[in-house]
Amino acid sequence: MNSVVLTHGDLDGITSGAIALLAFPGSDFYFTRPSQVHQDLYRVAKDRPTEVSVSDIAINSKKFDDILNAIDRFPESTTLYWIDHHPITPKQKRELARRVDLVHEVGPCAAELVYREFKDRLPEHALRLALYGAIGDYCDDTEFAKQQFDNYDKRALYLEAGLLVQALQEIDYRKESKDIVRQLALGIEPSSMNDIVTLALKATRIEHQVFRYVQSSARKLGPIGYILDMPINGYRGKSAKFAAYVTEANVGISARSTDDEVDMSLRRRQSRIDLNKALDTILPEMEGAQGGGHPAAAGASMYKDDFPKFLQRLAEYVDERS
Ligand SMILES: [Mn+2]
Fold this sequence. Notes:
With 322 residues, the protein is α/β, with parallel strands linked by helices. It folds into 2 domains: 3-197; 218-320, Roll (Diaminopimelate Epimerase, Chain A, domain 1), CATH 3.10.310. The protein has 13 helices and 11 strands. Strands 6-7-8-9-11-10 form a 6-stranded mixed beta sheet, sandwiched between helices. β6 and β7 form a beta hairpin. α1 runs parallel beside α5 (110-118), α2 runs parallel beside α3 and α5 runs antiparallel to α6. The radius of gyration is 20 Å and the shape is globular. 44% of the residues are buried. The mean pLDDT is 96. Bound molecules: manganese (II) ion (MN). Residues 12, 56, 85, 109-110, 137 line the site of manganese (II) ion. Manganese (II) ion binds at residues 12, 56, 85, 109-110, 137.
């Protein structure tokens, strides 16, 4: 068997995965996520691949030992690249670097890191994919990105990336996104993907509705603006941002509940608060709660009964630091 590409389902994941496909042509391709990457690695290890590229997958501290165990299942002959930009502890970084080819930097998006790692063997259009990833993850102000934007007309790049960002709101990433990855690897531009353009416009109209809904329904607790169980599915990151804005809060949350659990996206607004650190501090106080992400954008899940306490704790945490 040859190679395997594992990546995340958002735009940075999709573009970093497409670039990895260009670096390892003919690879098998799978979407994964922090909570399940260890299982996917276990499965992949059985096929003894030559190369494995994992991109844009945060290290979930609770699963770290499982991840290391899964990595240890690969034969000596496998080269495993782990390319990521989510915060990681120095200890985890050391442990991981001992086992894999680790490319880790906080600041650039994963697509930029994958591009820079394999640059010499990539076609020219891979660079545009790296820039779409940078736009998708708000990582478009790195030295690399700024320099490259200067080589194109960046407005057109933002339109192409924007079409993908919007369309992804309306796509089940496990199914249709695989086709997008293949097409992007082939060099097909988003504006030439008819279904993507149609979905992007639909998603943008829905986004305007989401904004109006959040404007009329968001609640506020101290420095936290939040929305619970919007009648529209998806749009979580966006509605979290809107919730912060319309309540003039420093942190916005968009949460969705099921029978006994609540799952949420968090965004910060005009604040330097590190949401990843905040979750690292608060979530261990609640049994069964998990989450993490970036300083400016994160996600979490917990038992529904713990949600009010979580809001209270996060409000205190933010107040103490601003
Ligand atoms: Mn990313």
